[in-house]
UniProtKB/TrEMBL annotation:
Its EC number is 5.1.1.-. The active site is at residues 162, 267. This is Dipeptide epimerase. Binds 1 Mg(2+) ion per subunit. Its cofactor is Mg(2+). Mg(2+) binds at residues 190, 218, 243. One of its GO terms (biological process) is peptide metabolic process. PROSITE patterns: MR_MLE_1. Belongs to the mandelate racemase/muconate lactonizing enzyme family. Residues 141-239 form the Mandelate racemase/muconate lactonizing enzyme C-terminal domain. It comes from Faecalibacterium taiwanense. Keywords: Isomerase, Magnesium, Metal-binding. It comes from the Bacteria.
Amino acid sequence: MKITEVRLGLISVPLRVPFKTALRSVSSVEDVIVEIHTDTGAVGYGEAPPTGVITGDTTGAIIGAIRDHIAKTIIGRDVDDFEDLMIALNACIQKNTSAKAAVDMALWDLYGQLYKIPVYKLMGGAKKSIVTDITISVNDPEEMVRDALNAIDRGYDCLKVKVGKEPEKDIARLSAIRGAVPKETCIRIDANQGWTPKEAVRILNGMQEKGLDLEFVEQPVKAHDFEGLKYVTERSYVPVLADESVFSPQDALTIMQMGAADLVNIKLMKCGGLYNALKIASAAEVYGVECMIGCMLEAKISVNAAVHLACAKQIITRVDLDGPVLCSEDPILGGAVFNEKEITVSNEPGLGIKGIEPGKIKYLD
Ligand SMILES: C[C@H](N)C(=O)N[C@@H](CCC(=O)O)C(=O)O
Ligand SMILES: [Mg+2]
């Protein structure tokens, strides 16, 4: 199966409500779609969101990295030389993890199609379904309570609540939500780097004293501040999950060796795809650090690839794959079935993506 063409397109999918974090506010998913064509007629699908504030990757940068570096590296190669392809993909340009992730998943899709096996089974997985949380954007407490109750009505029992913007309001936000939702609701929070280490310890222990019962806090401090993350992990009663601090397998190893976090969030867009995500999962297995699988604001092609990984690896014990359910429509054909919190993986060969609804993709050539 030889690679003949890398085709790019853009999709735009409106969100149900604006997505707001300590880092950004957006009202639609605007992603780059990758189609890798082969001489057998098989097509592999990938997707990358331009999450510049986290990955540094813009739409133009994703397109440029694929056109100017990645496409010329992979065109003409055989999908069966998979390890060579993965090494070449990772070596052909520095950073650009979103572009690499989109191409990596399209190649896994083709490799699975070549051997007629779903990717989660190729990775040794047996689990067919997973349960995701849903994100509540950071707003004033009243609006967050409305969004939380709406999520409960939709059947979610785990909320990932965004904080870290105007930190002085965070305890009031969480108190209002905890007081409004059913007692058994799991609540995890994500500060998206919005606190200083000392502020984080004060706020988290304040939340604990109020009995807000938080499962964990995601990325309380700046991404580069590994010492600050460790400071919080050692002093907070609320467990700490490293998100923006962990891009590469090397980052994951450093965080685990330092004991800088209790948990790690694996995202394909940060590590460059499934090939590197598997390395993070292996390191986590060695260190006994449980992982969450997360996503950026993404539509179904890329989140679907993460679903395959989550169904394959037992060390992934938490799931934040709510990109598609935050969208007001789903233009992607095939792949996992998202029935609110219940996600069922596709048993089709590869990743199971069939294409994009006609008229919903704007091809760039
Ligand atoms: C969408 C997901 N639940 C999420 O919150 N992901 C990121 C932020 C993604 C973005 O800004 O697109 C996270 O920080 O965990
Ligand atoms: Mg996060």
